[in-house]
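User: Could you check the structure of this?
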Amino acid sequence: MLAVALGGCASMPGDEPVAAQDEAAAQAVEVDVAVDEAALAEEDDVAGMPIEAAEPALRSSRLALAEARGEIDAAMADIRMAEARGLLQPEAKTWLQQAREAVDAGDATQARKLAGEAGRRARVALNGYYADMAQQRVARLRNEHSGSMSSAQRMRLDAVESALRAGQSEVALMLVNALVDEVAPGATFEPPASSGGKVSQVTVREGDTLSAIAARPEVYGNADLWPLLLKANRGKFLRVDALPVGIVLVVDRNATQEEIDRALALAR
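Assistant: Sure, the predicted structure tokens are below.
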């Protein structure tokens, strides 16, 4: 009777944990199998993705390096143009060499940054050179030929000065050269940069500051020498932090060592 009663029970005491353990173990096996299958599928995907992604990435890298080489060539052209006009560019050439080394190392971003700065430095020197040449011609026409110029020619001369104020120095030079050919054919002018690429005057462009101008290689090559510019151009502007665009600043080329030392002390 007891046996029958016991036999009618779903399980014997102590059997339930064993059954639960077996069921849990089975579920764990199923989970492990599912995880293994997912891992295998993921490995297949990962194995395929780099191959599929490698070609676009490689093409993108090659394109970036090609663009960097193009910017290096453009900067080199600007540097050669500047040096052909006596505007020596040792720092820009150093940056350009570093840009080439960055390309060789596969670093297109750094190469483009260095090439861009080298080209910018050369263009700044060229723009200053063109502005000085244009201003020189404008002054000659204003002072010596204004009376013989027609009203249309005087308007064109005004346009040259507007281009200078807008920082379009190369355009201004082209315009004033055409005017000089009409009004004073055969006129000669001294190059503004005749001493180691250094200029004796500079035209203020949009965003210029005294320290930025002093830092230009064709001016002083040192931002801390801005007090020399301030001293040489007193009365031309009211605030040193708001230079009028288009005014021509004199660059003192005869400063004594004592004046230079005082300027550096004041700046610092």
